[in-house]
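Entry 12.
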Amino acid sequence: MNSSLLFSEKRITPENDIIEIKIWKVSKNENFKEGIKYSLVYIHKSKRIFGYDNERGKEHHEHRYDKEKKIKFTTWNELLIKFKNEVNKLRDELYGNKSKKY
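Predicted 3D structure (tokens):
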């Protein structure tokens, strides 16, 4: 599979959580119909508590703690906005409104 990295970012929060985003342009195929492969993850205390990805054979889906569910994908820009909003909500739950927004 030919791929090129479109976007990559990794942040360590003041609380030592990890927020990592990777988006690749790939050849369109049955696994990646839009020609995009992505992994967006929020890690708290060394455990993924939230994320989006479209791993081969699983289509677009969300991870929230130990649960997984399919999501509707429109564009990766919209997905980034949704991800950032969800991370901010989780950070508010974990650390209160004083947490630094993503």
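Annotation: Residues 3-95 form one domain. The chain has a mean pLDDT of 92.
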